Amino acid sequence: MVVFECVACGAALTVPLRQVDRPDHEHHVWANSTSFTPSLLPPGTYAAQGDFLAGPGDVRGLSWVDDHPEGWCCGVNGADPNLACACGQPVATRVDDCSWWQVVRFEPGAVRATGEPDPVRPWDAFDWDGVPLTESELWWPRRVGIAAGAALAGVLLAAQDAPVLAADGPVHDLFQSHLDAWRPPGPPPRTLAQAGPGLTAQADLLMVPRHPQTGEAWPVPGTTVPISAELWLWLANDKPPYLPRTGGQWEPYLRHDPLPCRPRELRLDDNVTRSVMSKPRK
């Protein structure tokens, strides 16, 4: 695991952290409500790719640059570096305003990673057959809906100006109506299917998972559209979980502690698609 420390004085600024894939919902707000969005990252983790991100609960020894940091509504908006090391060096920006996912974003060049990063886990070390936990988790539909909107943008960009026809199943059910709205049927369509651990497919475009630790795409020949592992799991595991027979010895347990179920529906956030598609292409 790694600890991030101040380049100016060497002070430790985080607890030991392990790396995870950078979330799709990082830059996408979720409405304005009385429910504050949670941390962008799970406890004890960080994300890389350019700058470093950490959860607010995992930083140490930081204080506000100003006594009253600027905010928009109910918190700080993170427009400028607003957290400093004990030595006085500004090192990070905290975002925790309502509708923003809470995160601490370290300034490039202000911190360095020390310690030994965890070894990269092989693909088969992850559970790719597990059903996503339960639809009772408040923020699962929000963050995975954002990931679906980003995935749709990835498909559209990979297909260029061609229409896209998704293979039957969850990928078709979630994406096809949106694909038709963006690329009305006309020229011969490019085909889209899901591929990854335990799944092979033949299609022009293959929707594959990103590595949960590094963010690298599942290696497969062809044109790939990497998506979040959480979204990929939901698409790949569309069968209901095994349930033991009711009655007998199981009855008291199922009555008072029902087994988790796969979320039945997912709403693709097309605002995210429009946001991604509007960005200039390099």
Distance between the termini: 34 Å
* Fraction of residues in H or I helices: 10-25%
Helix/strand/pairing category: alpha/beta
| Rg measurement, Å | 21 Å
Spatial arrangement of strands, main beta sheet: 2-3-4-8-7-6-5
Q: Ranges with pLDDT <50 over ≥5 residues?
A: none
Task: Provide key terms for this protein.
single chain; 282 residues; alpha/beta; seven-stranded mixed sheet; four-stranded parallel sheet; 5 helices; 13 strands; 20% helix; C2H2-type domain-containing protein
Q: Can you tell me about this structure?
A:
By secondary structure, this protein is α/β, with parallel strands linked by helices. The protein has five helices and 13 strands. It has helices at about 140-160, 170-180, 230-235, 250-255, 270-280, and strands spanning about 1-5, 20, 45, 50-55, 60-65, 85, 90-95, 105, 110-115, 165, 190-195, 205-210, 225. The protein has a seven-stranded mixed beta sheet with strand order 2-3-4-8-7-6-5, with no helix packed on it. It has a four-stranded parallel beta sheet with strand order 10-11-12-13. Strand 7 (about 90-95) and strand 8 (about 105) form a beta hairpin. Helix 1 packs across helix 5 (about 270-280). It is globular and about 60 Å long. The two termini are about 35 Å apart. The model has no long low-confidence stretch (mean pLDDT about 85).
